[in-house]
Amino acid sequence: MNLYREISSALLDWYDRCARDLPWRGIHDSYRTWISEIMLQQTRVETVIPYYKRFLARFPSLSDLAAGDEADVLKLWEGLGYYSRARNLLKGARQVAEEYGGKLPMDPTLLAKISGIGPYTAGAIASIAYDIPVPAVDGNVLRVYSRLFGIRENIRQPAVRSKLDELAVSLVPEDRPGDYNQAVMDLGATVCVPGTPDCERCPLSAFCSAFEQGDAADLPLIPGKAAPKVIRWTVAVIWDGKRTLVRQRTESLLQGLWCFPMLECSPEEAPAMLTHKLRLSTEPFGNPVHARHVFTHLIWEMDVLPLKSVNGMKAPAGYRWVSKDELEKLAFPAAMNVALRTAKELLRQEEP
Ligand code: SF4
After folding, report:
1. What CATH number matches the domain at 229-348, 3.40.30.10, 1.10.3470.10, 3.40.50.300, 3.90.79.10?
2. 133 C-alpha vs ligand 1 centroid, how far in Å?
3. What pLDDT is stored for residue 249 in this prediction?
4. From 1.10.340.30, 3.40.50.720, 1.10.3720.10, 1.10.10.60, which CATH number describes the 3-218 domain?
5. Distance 144 CA to ligand 1 centre (A)
6. Which of 192, 196, 213 gets mutated to test ligand 1 (max ligand atoms within 8 A of its CB)?
7. pLDDT of res. 1
8. Mean pLDDT, contiguous 10-residue spans, the chain (352 residues)
9. How far is the CA of 85 from the centre of ligand 1 (A)?
10. What is the reported pLDDT for 350?
11. Residue 143 CA, closest ligand 1 atom number
12. pLDDT of residue 351
């Protein structure tokens, strides 16, 4: 047996004994694989499971999703983050309904042309749902392979990345390619983790360069990650006695999700800023509460400030006054959790 086959069979033996029991496993259904893979991007398995179940209960088939509307999809995605995934999924489902009669194609090159499907997801769908021997390479897989094969160069360099991609192609077995890809994903998520991996439990330690050299914690080499930019906001939760003021975002970050008015100023300056920018008269109605949300390249440091509107006001352009019941139906990003809690507390009160 050559080295690659020894590695893949050791990994598949381990997978047969230790695979995680997950609701999207053990099925050959390209739609379900697609949903699970999109939800799993940048998100922990435990977080994804209830979202996956709810999503499939509401949209059991690709044609159900293609006929769905964006507000419903975003509401089901609420709290999962990276909302462009949800919008692209819907766009992709409509594309598949139109161009492929509602069934995802088998060819990874065609899959990668569908909205929201990149090379990793195309490889995952083709191998898991259709048994096509192609790799699915994401950050976890790059970490495992750079340690296993002792790649001690910057994995962001195109030549180094190509070397890793070639290794990934060579390693996928003809037999059980989907299980093999899921085995690498499981190994990266549970054993060959970032930082210090659990090499004692690893089925590949006998083959592993980093284990032999003792430098697994230093790999993969990814120099010079830029520090995330910090933006400070006052999030104004304005209450008029019955309703609160919200706005649907049009910016590319969190597009389509609902937020409370956000001002780049201190809480003390917020009432004046609201008067100046939105023609709203307000007064503070409690102390600000701090909240923080970390995006990939951005951090929002927020002071959530409860305010009472001073007189009955028309909503400014782009904003909407909503009751407690209306608020429940809108999709808010996790970044607004503290503000949303504050708004619900205010809306529970009666007009003084
Ligand atoms: Fe990762 Fe350690 Fe296994 Fe090597 S032996 S693949 S470093 S867990």
Report:
1. 3.90.79.10
2. 24
3. 93
4. 1.10.340.30
5. 7
6. 192
7. 65
8. 92 95 93 97 93 97 96 94 93 97 96 96 97 96 96 93 96 97 95 92 96 90 80 95 94 91 94 90 92 89 94 84 94 94 89 52
9. 31
10. 61
11. 1
12. 53
Clarify whether 37 is annotated catalytic: yes
Three-state DSSP string of the chain:
CCHHHHHHHHHHHHHHHHCCCCCCCCCCCHHHHHHHHHHHCCCCHHHHHHHHHHHHHHCCCHHHHHCCCHHHHHHHHCCCCCCHHHHHHHHHHHHHHHHHCCCCCCCHHHHCCCCCCCHHHHHHHHHHHHCCCCCCCCHHHHHHHHHHCCCCCECCCHHHHHHHHHHHHHHCCCCCHHHHHHHHHHHHHHCCCCCCCCHHHCCCHHHCHHHHHCCHHHCCECCCCCCCEEEEEEEEEEECCCCEEEEECCCCCCCCCEECCEECCCCCCHHHHHHHHHCCCEEECCCCEEEEEECCCEEEEEEEEEEEECCCCCCCCCEEEECHHHHHHCCCCHHHHHHHHHHHHHHHCCCC
